[in-house]
Amino acid sequence: MSEAADAEGTTGREIWIEKYRPQTLEDVYGQEDIVDRLRSYIEQDDLPHLLFAGPAGVGKTTSATAIARAVYGDDWRGNFLELNASDERGIDVVRDRIKNFARASFGGYDYRIIFLDEADSLTSDAQSALRRTMEQFSDNTRFVLSCNYSSKIIDPIQSRCAVFRFSPLGDDAVRKQVEAIAETEGIELTEDGLDALVYAAGGDMRRAINSLQAAATTGEVVDEEAVYLITSTARPEDIEEMVQSAIDGEFLAARSKLETLLVDTGMAGGDIIDQLHRSVWEFDLDERATVRLMERIGEADYRITEGANEQVQLEALLASLAAASDEYE
């Protein structure tokens, strides 16, 4: 067990996603091509405005702070402003806080860095103001914008930035980091537990580390059962069994399995849809049948997203599969 955990007498008092957050670009897992390009900018002292786009937990914020550490060293906190646009999305933030920071005097460096997290939450007016601010202070300020969907960022801002698209982390990257943390913390992690963590993470390193920490508090061993329990995630085989029953025309059996997932496991309908989407290609279906299944999954996902009752939509999905069972034979 680590010194910190040992001193406190228990596992999990410290938030591991912060404790093990990479401090340098070289420590960022699973984004090698992006890291190489960012390192090249820093080495050439030619950092442009940056736009990081991608899902949660893949290294966008970590890369931004790592850039600041590389450029400023121990002075990075005084030359790096981090704002979360989802909390402060109004135009006043752009006009006031960002401009005040950009105008402030600083010594020894050609520019300061402003990191705007979740920039796709900015209103259209705020983005227009931000574009003008980027123009005004381009001589002494570099902007790093982070978002989940680059399509929500207006074109004038995108054209001023070097765009980096972060992809979900590969299983090997997640596995490597989780194993390293488990070893450092002295956690007994079984092979099936590691597989479950990687599956539950779905390419999100933050989710993997949080799940490991949560599972480590439930007992001495982190195994498959502990991971699926703590993450409210269904085993892939349970999802496959449910859909296979529907495909075979056994609607009542499929509905029973669905009710177990919703009530006993405590899963949300959207999570079931996500896992079902990941398992589509595991079924022994021809391409035509798989396309039809994907179409029904997409329809159910849209309706749930728009606010429809999750259980009703999922049962309707299974019913449509059962009713068309002859198509899958």
Automatic annotation (TrEMBL):
CDD domains: AAA, HLD_clamp_RFC
GO biological process, one term: DNA-templated DNA replication
Sequence ranges assigned to domain AAA+ ATPase in this UniProt record: 46-171
GO cellular component, one term: DNA replication factor C complex
Keywords from the named record: ATP-binding, DNA replication, Nucleotide-binding
UniProt function note: Part of the RFC clamp loader complex which loads the PCNA sliding clamp onto DNA.
The name this protein goes by in its record: Replication factor C small subunit
Species this protein is from: Halogeometricum pallidum JCM 14848
Name of the gene encoding the protein in the UniProt record: rfc
